[in-house]
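STRUCTURE:
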C-alpha cells in the first residue's frame, strides 16, 4: 500500500522570503526553503546575538534586520515567514498582510481568539495567501492514515488514540515557551498538533474533557477525550520528560477491519494490521525533491515541514489559495485547545 506525497515545483517564478525569528523553527524553515527551487531567503529578522552565527552556519547571504518593518521597508519581499513566539504572531501577521505580502505563520495562529480574529481580518482584507504551520496535516505517515480512512478499506473508524511527548524544551529564547502569557505551555504549543489533526480528520467534536499537570501555572501535560458519536477519540501531549528522554509522536487508529499505527521511535514507523493478516509495515512515499540545493537527498527528516511549505509556495505560483491548514482551520484548532485548557482548569466537560 503506497501513499504518494509529491508536489511540483517546476515553475520558474522566483520568490523572495523574509524569515521573522530565526530560532529552532526559523532554522527548520530555512532548511526547507534552501531545498526548494527558485526561492531566495533575502532577510532574517532577529535581534539575538546567536542569530548572526546561525545565519552564517546555514550559508545564507540574507541581510539581518532588527524588525519586520525594517525588512519590508528596505528589501523586496514576496513571502513573510513568521517563526516568532506565539504572543507576537498576530501583530506580525497584520503588519505583513497590510504590506501586501503572502504570509506563512508557525502554529499556533495566536495566543487568544481576539488576536487570531484580528490577524485573519487583516489577511482577508489584503487578499494575500495565508497558511499556518499545522504541519501534521502534511506529515507523510498522518497523510497515509487520512488516505486509508477515506478509502473505506478498513470499514468504519471505531477509535483513535494520539500522543506527542517530549523532554522539556530548552531551546526557546528567553525561555518563552514556559511562560503562560507567551505560549500557554505544552497545551497550545505541542498538543495542538494532535488536536488540529483530529479536527482535520473528524471535524469539530461535540465537547472536550481534559485533565492535566501544571508547573508554575503552565500546563506541561494535557490529556483530552473528544466526544464524537460512535468513535472514541483521545489524545495526550506533554513535555514533562527528563532532558535525555527525547521526543515521540504516535497514533493508533482502530477500524472495523484494520488497525493503523504509527510510532516515531521505531523504524519503520508506520504499520497496518488488515483483516486476519499479519501486522506489516505500511508503505508510503516521503517527499520527492527535485532541487539540487544544499539539503537535497536529505529531505526525509523534514517530513511535514517540507510538504507544508512546498504546498504554500506552489499555491502562490499557481494562484491557488491554501485549502489545508488555513487561517479559519487554525482558528478552530486554537478555539478547541483553549476549551481543553478551560476543561482542565474547571474540571468539567466543555461544549464546543
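SEQUENCE:
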Amino acid at each position: 500500500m503506497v501513499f504518494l506525497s509529491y508536489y511540483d515545483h517546476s515553475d520558474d517564478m522566483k520568490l523572495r522570503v523574509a524569515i521573522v525569528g530565526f530560532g529552532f523553527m526559523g532554522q527548520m524553515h530555512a532548511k526547507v526553503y534552501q531545498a526548494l527551487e527558485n526561492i531566495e531567503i533575502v532577510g532574517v529578522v532577529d535581534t539575538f546575538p546567536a542569530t548572526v552565527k546561525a545565519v552564517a552556519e546555514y550559508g545564507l547571504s540574507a541581510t539581518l534586520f532588527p524588525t519586520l518593518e525594517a525588512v519590508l521597508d528596505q528589501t523586496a519581499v514576496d513571502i513573510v515567514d513568521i517563526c516568532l513566539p506565539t504572543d507576537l504572531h498576530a501583530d506580525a501577521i497584520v503588519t505583513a498582510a497590510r504590506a501586501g505580502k503572502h504570509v506563512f505563520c508557525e502554529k499556533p495562529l495566536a495566543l487568544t481568539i481576539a488576536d487570531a480574529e484580528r490577524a485573519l481580518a487583516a489577511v482577508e482584507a489584503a487578499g494575500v495567501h495565508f497558511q499556518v504551520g499545522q504541519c501534521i496535516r502534511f506529515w507523510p505517515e498522518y497523510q497515509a492514515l487520512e488516505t486509508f480512512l477515506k478509502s473505506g478499506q478498513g470499514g468504519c473508524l471505531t477509535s483513535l488514540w494520539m500522543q506527542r511527548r517530549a523532554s522539556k524544551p530548552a531551546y526557546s529564547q528567553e525561555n518563552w515557551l514556559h511562560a503562560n502569557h507567551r505560549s500557554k505551555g505544552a497545551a497550545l504549543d505541542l498538543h495542538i498538533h494532535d488536536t488540529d489533526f483530529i479536527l482535520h480528520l473528524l471535524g469539530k467534536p461535540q465537547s472536550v474533557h481534559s485533565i492535566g499537570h501544571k508547573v508554575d501555572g503552565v500546563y506541561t501535560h494535557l490529556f483530552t477525550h473528544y466526544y464524537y458519536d460512535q468513535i472514541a477519540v483521545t489524545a495526550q501531549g506533554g513535555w514533562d520528560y527528563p532532558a535525555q528522554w527525547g521526543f515521540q509522536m504516535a497514533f493508533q487508529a482502530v477500524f472495523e477491519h484494520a488497525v493503523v499505527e504509527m510510532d516515531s521511535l521505531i523504524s519503520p514507523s508506520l504499520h497496518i494490521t488488515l483483516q486476519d493478516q499479519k501486522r506489516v509495515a505500511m508503505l508510503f512515499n516521503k517527499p520527492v525533491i527535485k532541487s539540487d540545493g544544499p539539503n537535497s537527498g536529505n529531505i526525509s527528516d523534514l517530513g511535514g515541514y517540507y510538504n507544508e511549505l512546498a504546498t504554500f509556495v506552489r499555491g502562490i505560483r499557481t494562484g491557488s489559495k491554501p485549502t489545508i491548514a488555513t487561517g479559519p482551520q487554525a482558528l478552530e484548532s486554537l478555539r478547541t485547545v483553549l476549551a481543553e485548557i478551560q476543561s482542565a482548569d474547571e474540571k468539567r466537560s466543555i461544549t464546543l
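REMARK: The chain has two domains: 15-133+305-325, 137-287+333-351.
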